[in-house]
Amino acid sequence: MEVEAAVEEKAAKRPSRIYGVLRAVSGVLAVGLVLLALGNIGVQFYANSRDLPGPGTLSVVAHVVAALAAVGGQIVADRYADWRAPVSSFGVLVVAGVTLWVFWWA
Question: What is the pTM of this model?
Fold first, then answer.
């Protein structure tokens, strides 16, 4: 009897397929932001060593902050199966969108 209740409880906490896709997309974007932050850091170090302008301190710091926020949001999205998961995933999408818009597209 207790085993059946535990199985039903675990099945009830399983997120829907849409939340799974949203979580996967936000995970890819979080990794992408980390790679962009590391790339910005590397390009800035290279530019400093060659006396070139580089991306600048604002861009590097903003990319690092965005990457940290995205990874934090993704950790929350991966750990919880309630309302916090899609909200955190959506937050990662917003952070990635704002970062890409401000520093790459606009």
Answer: 0.83
